[in-house]
Task: structure prediction
Amino acid sequence: MSLSRRQSLGALAVSALALPAVAAAQSQGKKITIGISVPAADHGWTAGVIWWAKQAMALYPSIEFMLMPAQNPEKQIGDLETMMVKGVDGLVILATESAPLTPTAKDAKAKGILVVNVDRGFLEPVADVFLEGDNKAFGRKSAQFMVDEFKRRGTAKPKIIVLEGIPCTVNTDRVTAANEVFKAAGVEIVGQASGNWNRQKALEVMETLLVRSPKIDAVWASDDDMALGAEQAIREAGREKEMWMLGGAGMKEIVKKVMDRDPMYPANITYPPSMIATGVQLAVGILRDGQRDKILQFMPKHLLIDVELITPENAKGYYFPESVY
Amino acid sequence: MSLSRRQSLGALAVSALALPAVAAAQSQGKKITIGISVPAADHGWTAGVIWWAKQAMALYPSIEFMLMPAQNPEKQIGDLETMMVKGVDGLVILATESAPLTPTAKDAKAKGILVVNVDRGFLEPVADVFLEGDNKAFGRKSAQFMVDEFKRRGTAKPKIIVLEGIPCTVNTDRVTAANEVFKAAGVEIVGQASGNWNRQKALEVMETLLVRSPKIDAVWASDDDMALGAEQAIREAGREKEMWMLGGAGMKEIVKKVMDRDPMYPANITYPPSMIATGVQLAVGILRDGQRDKILQFMPKHLLIDVELITPENAKGYYFPESVY
Result:
C-alpha cells in the first residue's frame, strides 16, 4: 500500500514513512534557483513591484534568487538569456512589453524552465502560471463606488472626468467596465483624456479639462500617480472644494489620505504591486520539493486577483508605510 | 531539528543562514496541522474534489492533514469544531452551503486559524484567501465557443436549449454571461430549464424540452453530469444526429469524448475540482515556514481561476484517467 493511499484513508495523516523523491536530490546539494525579471523603476507602481519582489525573496534564504530589473525589452531579453545560461529552475517575469518578450518566454519554457508570468501577459499562453489583476473588476468596482458615493452625498445628475492610462488591454478593460456602470447609473462624463498613468501628463490634461468643464463633481483618475497630478491642477485652479476623486492601485500616500478621511479621497482601489511577491511565492512552492509536475496538474494556468475597495474603515490593512509605493 | 524543517529548507542553506523565527518552534516538535472540510460525495464533481484533496495531501508527508467530508452543513460545522479542538493551524473549506457555515468560519478566523475558502464563498469576506472559478468567464467562453462552432458548421439562425444548475450565484453568473453572448450573436434559446447539475433531473427536463422543440441545433448543458442526462434523452428520442452539446467542468468521460472527436462533444470547459488541491497548496505554503503574517501581506484575499476551453487539440492535458471525475 502506497503512502498516498494510506494517507487518504485516515483522518490523521501519516508522517515520516517516505520522503518525496526530491529529498535525495536536495541532500546532494542541488539548490533551487529562481530568476525574477521586471521593469526597472525608481518610483511608482513598478518600484513597488521591485520592493515586493525583495520581500518575498527574503522569506526564502534556501532558494537562490536572481532579481534583474530592465529598462527596456532588449535589456530584459538579455537578462532572461543570462538567467537561462546560469541554469535557473524557474522564472518569474513581469514583461516590459508583451510582444518582444514572448519568444524568449517560449524559449525558456522549451528548455523546461518553470515560467510564472505576472501582470502583463505574453501574446500566447506560454506561462505555466499567469497571474494578473482583474482589470474589468477594477473598472466595475471603482465606478460602482463612485455611483454609491454620489447617492450618499445626494449629488443629482453627477458629472465626472475620466482619466485613462496608456492605451493597452489593461486600460481598455478598466475603462470599458467603468463606462458601463456610469452609463447605467446616469453619470455624465463631461471630459475624458489619457494621462498615461503619469503624474505630469495627468496634471497637463487635467488643466485643459478644468477649463473646458465649468462643473465637475468627481474625477475617475483610475491611478494614484494620475490622481496626484490631477489634484495639483485642481488646487491650482482653486476648485478643490468642488470635486473629489478616485485614484487606483493603493499608493501608500493615497491610502494614508483615505485612512485620514481626506475629503478629496473617500476611497481607493487595489491593484497591488505585491502580486510579484505572490508570483515568487507560487514559483517557490512549485519548485522547492521537486514535485513540480504533480503540482502543475492542479495549479491553475491563469489566476486573476480580484481588486478590493479601500475605505477609511479598512485602509489600515492596505497601508504599508515602509513600502516604496 | 524535525524532519519537516529539514525537508522544507533543503540540506545546503540550513547550515549557514539564519533561520526564520518559526524554526525554533518547529524544532520543538510542533507539526503543522491543516484541516480540509468538504462536501461528501461518491461521484461527480464533489467526488473529484475529495480525490484532488488527497493528491495534494500526498505531496506533503511532513504536514498533518485531517480530511473530513460532510453530508450536510450540520455535519460540516461539527467537523470544523472537531478540527478546532484538535488545534489545527489552518483550514481549507469548501462549504456545503454558504450561510450556515459563515459563523463557524468567523469563529475559526477569530481563533487565529488560517482560513482558505475554495469554490463556495461565505456570506462575508471571512477567509484569508478565497479561491474560486471565474463563473462569468465560464458562461462567456462556453457561449462564445458555441457561436464560433455554429459559424464553422455553417448553421444559420441557430436554435439552442439552455440547461441551468441549482439556483445560486454560480449558476446566475454563468447563465447571465452566456445569455449576453448568445443574444449579441443572434442565437435563439428555444428552451430553458434547470437540471440542478444532476444527471437524472437533466434527463427528465430534456425529455420535456425535446417534445416542445421540433428543431434544436445544440444544447448548452453547462455541466457534464447534465450533459450525460440530456444525451440519454436525446438518444432515446432518436435525435442524436440533429444536435451537439457543450457540457462543463471537465469530467474525464467527457474530456475523453472530446479527445476522441465524438461528434456530439466538440469541446468542454474547465471548472476543475482540483481547485481544492490548489487551496491546500496555498495553505501549506503560507503555514509551513511559520512566516504566515508576512506571506498574507502579499497573498491576494480573492483569487479567481480562469476557465479554459477544452478542444480535441488540447484535451490530453485535461485528461486524468485515474481521477474519479
Q: What stands out?
A: The first strand of chain B starts at residue 33 and ends at 39.
